[in-house]
Amino acid sequence: MTESVRWSAGTTDASPEQRVPEWDGDHLHDMSTDAAAGDVELGIDPAELADEDLIREMHSLHRTRLDTLRHATDSALANHLRRTAELETEYLARYPGREIDPNRLRDE
């Protein structure tokens, strides 16, 4: 993650990734080392989800994103960031040539 402009300016405001100690910027944790450290795996491995379940899980996380960012504990936000990254990484691995909506393209 890039540094927040506010963080770089020397104020105490920081991005969620900078504020949350559990977030180390590495979206793909090695679950074998996490389990050895006593951490509990949260959620089903995205690779094991059927396509419909993967989409449903991503939809749920995106629907709750703003509320989690604004009101959740640091730990809950860290879990939300981690899970979102895991699910989106799996989605992109399954659909590397995903359909691009021409209406979402910007003129360069």
UniProtKB/TrEMBL annotation:
It comes from the Bacteria. Residues 1-31 are annotated as: Disordered. It holds the Pfam family DUF6158. Residues 1-15 have a biased composition (Polar residues). Residues 19-31 have a biased composition (Basic and acidic residues). InterPro entries: DUF6158. This is Uncharacterized protein. It comes from Micromonospora olivasterospora. The lineage of its organism: Bacteria, Bacillati, Actinomycetota, Actinomycetes, Micromonosporales.
